[in-house]
Amino acid sequence: MKTLIVSALLAAGLVVTGCQSSMSKEEFQQRTEDTGYNTVIFTDYDLNRRFKDGLTGPDNVVRLSTTGHGIERTDTGTSQVWVELRNHTDFNYMVEARTSFYSQSGRPLDARPVWRRISVPANARAVYEEKSVTTDRLQYRVEVRQAR
Question: Does the 37-146 domain belong in CATH 2.30.30.110?
């Protein structure tokens, strides 16, 4: 009897393990693709991602998106990065963003970029801005995640 119970539990465990899917090829590519410079990255994968072959067919999960981003010079000669975030849901989102600045040759300039909170109202837009401390011409990378 004990052997039968153990066998049944092992079989159930194998069925459950087999039903759990590992990371798809496309998800792996999205998480590991080269991000480049002068870009905005959603590091919290559930805020903005692409997938195919879901239960309802090919689809996107887009809770937040960017409607624009760029870098411009301030009156003092430093650089200022801006990102406009759009909330596609019926719920307010509290997110965090941080900017890493890079020299034209790609060398990181900020030792520790700081996460800043941004409230993005339901079905609305919000702007995130960050200034550099140097007057050199810079490149940037902005990371966005759900607030922790």
Answer: no
